[in-house]
Write a structure and sequence with these properties.
This protein is 70% helix and 0% strand. It is mostly helical. The termini are far apart.
Length: 81
């Protein structure tokens, strides 16, 4: 498989604009690489919002339960609003 340059470009644009980035590494490849990068600097991406940081950590630990992944993503979105 070849990594998606387009996804990396979108990630870089989102970072530049200070947008909320939700790393869903379970989809693999570039998404997993982005998740790993974000996990190395959670405070950088989510400022000091401890709830967001904990939810993103939880999302990174979830592997194959799609209902649980969706539940965590919804919690992230609600927390960010």
């Amino acid at each position: 498989m070849v990594n998606s340059d387009g996804m990396l470009e979108e990630f870089e644009l989102a970072k530049e604009k200070g947008l909320l980035i939700i790393p869903i590494g379970q989809t693999g490849f570039v998404a997993k690489d982005i998740q790993i990068e974000i996990e190395k600097g959670l405070e950088k991406y989510y400022s000091t919002n401890k709830k967001l940081i904990e939810l993103v950590k939880e999302l990174g630990q979830e592997s194959d339960d799609s209902d649980k992944i969706i539940e965590i993503i919804i919690k992230i979105l609600r927390t960010a609003i």
